[in-house]
Protein 1
Amino acid sequence: MSTSEIRTGLQLRSLVKGSGELELSLVNAAVPEPLADEVIIRVEATPINPSDLGLLFAAADPNTATASGKGAGTVLTARIPEEATWGIKARLDQSMLVGNEGAGIVVAAGSAAPAAALLGKTVATFGGGMYVQYHATQASRCVVLPPGTSPAEGAAIFINPMTALSMVDVMRREGHTALVHTAAASSLGQMLNRICLADNIGLVNIVRSRAQLELLRGMGAAHVCDSSATTFQQDLTEALQSTGATLAFDAIGGGTLASQILTGMESAINRSAKGYSRYGSATHKQVYLYGTLDTGPTVLKRNFGLAFGVGGWLLTQYLAKIGPAATAALQARVLAELKTTFACRYTREISLAEALQPELVALYSRRSTGGKYLINPARPMDASPDATVRPEPPLLS
Ligand SMILES: NC(=O)c1ccc[n+]([C@@H]2O[C@H](COP(=O)([O-])OP(=O)(O)OC[C@H]3O[C@@H](n4cnc5c(N)ncnc54)[C@H](OP(=O)(O)O)[C@@H]3O)[C@@H](O)[C@H]2O)c1
């Protein structure tokens, strides 16, 4: 099949102008004829993850956005504060594609056998540029979804599921026996909780409200610590002693939480210390900052000895490090447990044009518990948001 009947498709583009104005718009772009090893996917589902919001809005506050035009002609603009432009100079005046992962139907394929075999299949892929109606990619970057899986069910099989599984992989490879996770009521956190319960791994979940604590307890979590409670540091230390966790993945990044976790680990370890050491315990304690939910500085109050590490962590870099065979093993588990362990709930499915409506921007950019949105680029541009597509209500408002 060729793309001769599919000449153009809409693409959501994010542009930061040299003047400091952010502009989001839909561009009608030519759909290329696939090369021999390529396919064209009609994208039908692509999630809005926290990492997508960073590229989409740059340093602009989504709540200040205004829109003009209608449907496919909608243009959203927002101001980027002068002091925030230093980190985005490299992207000034470049119209950028957005959307890390998604799924859809292969509607055209190149002549090479692996590409041709995908024609008509429902596939998922990642690597950027998924907020488009038609996405061209190499066949080798596609994963065929199991029979009976819709694009919506397979749209988010890469980023959160692979990250949650990788956290457990890091724990084993780096010699730890249990884990700590922050912002633990997140979509990813709920997956990690299910993995740890199934694999009998100690997990200390840190959340920031009583409602989130109850949510995770209701999902079987044994250790949930609420950072808004006055007893937080004490609760955390108890949970750390009980699990023996010396490895944490922190999605928040800014503030003192990473420091409080290291302090709690050191206190828990010292409860069984044989004597005093002025350098602290010899047990290595590690926190990986893997998200930026709080963009402020990371503050370390160094009262946890010298056997510690604080570093950054990114899925793609980790998968490159462990190699294709280990990556494929993680991916196989995701596919096998797609509708259970790695199921992702969405609040709403919206069209590309609706993704540019300020009232919806204000909702999906909150990154709130149970508030994830799914873009369906195949959805008619003038459709109104349809909460009935996903019957489940948000877990928390
Ligand atoms: N490094 C990597 O390779 C990688 C890969 C995948 C995901 N991630 C990161 O993983 C995190 C979770 O992603 P997700 O898609 O699962 O998120 P999500 O479902 O959108 O949930 C976000 C969660 O973060 C909480 N939150 C938001 N701002 C917060 C803050 N300032 N302090 C504390 N909690 C806050 C929200 O709680 P409220 O309801 O209380 O706001 C909510 O529970 C994100 O930070 C994402 O960037 C990183």
Protein 2
Amino acid sequence: MKLKKGDEVIITAGKDKGKKGKIEKTYPKNDVVLLPGLNIFKRHLKKRDEKNPGGIISFPRGIPVGNVALICPKCGKQTRIGYKIDKNKKSRICRKCHSII
Ligand SMILES: [Zn+2]
């Protein structure tokens, strides 16, 4: 996974398309990222007993990495991530402005 926690991204597909957020968590196994306050789904629960009174609960759902694009912190543009290998160190670079990000 090219994205990491703290990256600012824009959602490019789905119900929150066009919204921006900072990655709160990544799930590399599933290629999913979690953005706080975005991609919230609501579920209605039936009352089962006194401990579970039911109601509506909201929960965030991860967004597939294919549905988000990185916003470069240097040039502020929506970009793709490239890699540069320098003295055995792998750096992420912005494909637009070529800054290390
Ligand atoms: Zn850039």
